[in-house]
Specification:
Strand content: 15-25%
Radius of gyration: 23 Å
Number of helices: 4
Helix content: 25-40%
Number of strands: 6
Structural class: alpha+beta
Low-confidence stretches: 1-31, 166-175
């Protein structure tokens, strides 16, 4: 059992205090009063590290699933954009942001409104909703056509919402038995859709560069 894990995605570095390990506070307090050999303390600390590893898998695993689903959504949007362009003289929807996505929905190219919402969003778009005023999770670059370079970005996550965490510092004190402090560093993730139909996970500085070079609209 691990408690006291605090993660705030809006902060930079994260301090996580693991005050309860294995069987809870009571057992930890009992261990402190027991005369344990150094070998047993090492074994207990190793067990704490194993629990920490499981905890990190749980933390990162859930968002990784959302990231994959979000990537799949953008690929579906990419297919709809391609079908639209093939039917409109190679031009993609010429309206900005959500209005461009509404042209896809209203035109029957991608009517499933769930495809326009990231699984990390709390808001759900009801079926048949006009996307031009809905809580769409993605941004769009209008005015492009199929003959533009395939590496051109055409849509992306509205926000840099996904994150995974890396451990960069662990303090272990054998006198207290277990892990007393863990520092985590967040790695931000966002998805970008390109004209060739690929939706690619993008991180940190690459994200800022893509935003600065493309006219994404909402």
């Amino acid at each position: 059992m691990v408690t006291g894990l605090r993660l705030n995605p809006r902060r930079g570095l994260h301090d996580c205090n693991f005050d309860t390990l294995l069987m809870g506070n009571r057992i930890i307090r009992n261990w402190k009063h027991m005369k344990l050999s150094l070998t047993k303390k090492i074994y207990l600390s190793i067990a704490s590290l194993i629990i920490l590893a499981v905890c990190m898998v749980q933390i990162n695993g859930g968002d990784h699933i959302r990231l994959i689903t979000c990537t799949s959504n953008l690929k579906q949007i990419g297919l709809a954009l391609k079908m639209y362009a093939e039917a409109n003289n190679t031009y993609f929807p010429n309206k900005p942001g959500r209005q461009g996505f509404e042209m896809l929905r209203a035109g029957g190219y991608l009517e499933n409104v769930k495809m326009y919402t990231c699984p990390g969003e709390d808001d759900c778009i009801p079926d048949g909703t006009d996307l031009s005023t809905a809580s769409v999770s993605y941004m769009y670059v209008p005015g492009l056509k199929m003959t533009d370079p395939p590496t051109t970005a055409i849509a992306r996550d509205k926000e840099f919402r996904h994150a995974s965490y890396l451990i960069y510092n662990i303090q272990i004190r054998f006198t207290d038995i277990g892990i007393r402090r863990v520092n985590l560093f967040p790695i931000r993730h966002g998805n970008v859709l390109y004209l060739d139909g690929s939706a690619i996970e993008t991180r940190n500085h690459e994200w800022a560069e893509i935003i600065s070079k493309n006219n994404f609209t909402y």
